[in-house]
């Protein structure tokens, strides 16, 4: 079986994705296990609110999360968003495409450092995410812990090299 060419992934807005595709991803138990802030049902109302919140980030900050599409299939979402004073990067991918993480991180980080000119980017991972070698290979270093909505996260930070 040939390896998937993740360089073909298209970045688009979440508004271009059928809500049912987002709902299915956000309710997938394999995905949900790593989303401690996702509580309760994620249905039509929650999806509409979620997409509106992500679009507001684009309108107010000029950046935000994208939807990822490969060969006309929605495979996940992620990108940059403010978390306090930090620009945080996050990825939520369908389990079938977890291998696309490093490729997507590199594209998002290039956008952050070269186009937005941010000084550093953080990644917040729940303690359940024990496999962090790919993040470390990208240059992220552990940078403390954060509590959001009573949930603990380990913060990793990558500082832009000048």
Task: Give a brief outline of the structure.
The chain is of the alpha+beta class and 162 residues long. It has one domain (6-119): 3-Layer(aba) Sandwich (Aminopeptidase).
Description:
This protein has 162 residues and is an alpha+beta fold. It has a single domain (6-119), classed as Aminopeptidase (3-Layer(aba) Sandwich), CATH 3.40.630. It contains five helices and seven strands. It has helices at 19-27, 29-32, 44-61, 101-115, 133-137, and strands spanning 10-12, 65-70, 73-83, 86-93, 120-125, 141-148, 151-159. The strands form two sheets. The protein has a four-stranded antiparallel sheet, with helices on both faces. The N and C termini lie far apart (40 Å).
N- to C-terminal distance: 40 Å
Number of helices: 5
Question: What is the CATH class designation?
Answer: Alpha Beta
Strand order of the largest sheet: 1-2-3-4
Q: What is the CATH H-level superfamily?
A: Gcn5-related N-acetyltransferase (GNAT)
Q: Which range best describes the helical content: under 10%, 10-25%, 25-40%, 40-55%, 55-70% or over 70%? A: 25-40%
Number of E-state strands = 7
Biggest β-sheet strands, sense, barrel? 4 strands, antiparallel
β-strand percent reads 25-35%
CATH architecture: 3-Layer(aba) Sandwich
Q: How many domains make up the coordinates?
A: 1
| N to C succession of SSEs | EHHHEEEHEHEE
CATH topology: Aminopeptidase
- Shape category: globular
Low-confidence stretches: none
Alpha carbon gyration radius: 15 Å
SS-derived structural category: alpha+beta
Arithmetic mean of pLDDT: 91
